[in-house]
Amino acid sequence: MLRVIIPILVLAASLISRVSATALTYNVAANEKACFYTYNEKPGVKVAFYFAVQSGGSFDIDYSVISPSQKVVLDGERERQGDFVFTANEVGEYKFCFLNEMSTFAEKMVDFEIAVENEARAELPVKQAGGTEEETSLLENSIHSVSGKLTAISRTQKYFRTRENRNFSTVKSTESRIFYFSVIEVLGIVGMSVGQVLVVKLFFTGSRKGYV
């Protein structure tokens, strides 16, 4: 039993160690261009880039991904969210930028993640321990299946988090509009009441003068 558990843990650790990810939340001010960097050590590496605008304005933002040679890898305008995977064929710093230049006062809160993964498979410890090829294949497939399901769960959580933040922002905006509309309505009613009192008062004052 112990001979089976230890190779599984070592294999899982070797698979996890091949992925480096950065998840951040950043407030992009109006007319601001915010850039973030990740370094790629060798060509042919897969890079995953995810972002979602959580609040601010119309929940949209411009984005771009620039290679070390200043070539545009990805770009878009007025996007609410994006989920991309591309192959980094150049060694060096990749630049991920968010542009909020279309807004004059609205601040955008952006949740994003940059993950760099090397597709080269690590040497399986099961083979080193003398396991059969069939056992190795089944173990490897099981771990990759679990990894895929965890990734799907993570994406679903991000989706629902984005929906929750946007719905909360919509409810907050609607509540604010209802409040100000109610205040204007109350002031209008009070103004009309005061106006009616003044009109009636002037009417009776004018009647008395005419009678005298």
Provide the descriptors you would attach to this structure in a database record.
212 residues; alpha+beta; four-stranded antiparallel sheet; 3 helices; 33% strand; elongated
Describe this structure in words.
- The chain contains three helices and eight strands.
- By secondary structure, the protein is an alpha+beta fold.
- The chain has a four-stranded antiparallel β-sheet, with helices on one face. A four-stranded antiparallel β-sheet has the order 2-7-4-5, with no helix packed on it.
- The longest helix has 79 residues, at 133-211.
Distance between the termini: 114 Å
Mean pLDDT, to the nearest integer, reads 80
Radius of gyration: 30 Å
> Helix content range of the residues, please?
40-55%
Please give the count of helices: 3
Structure described in brief:
The protein is of the alpha+beta class and 212 residues long. It has helices at residues 2-16, 125-128, 133-211; strands spanning 19-28, 33-40, 45-55, 61-66, 72-79, 81-88, 92-99, 108-117.
Question: Helix and strand layout, with pairings?
Answer:
Elements lengths: L1 H15 L2 E10 L4 E8 L4 E11 L5 E6 L5 E8 L1 E8 L3 E8 L8 E10 L7 H4 L4 H79 L1
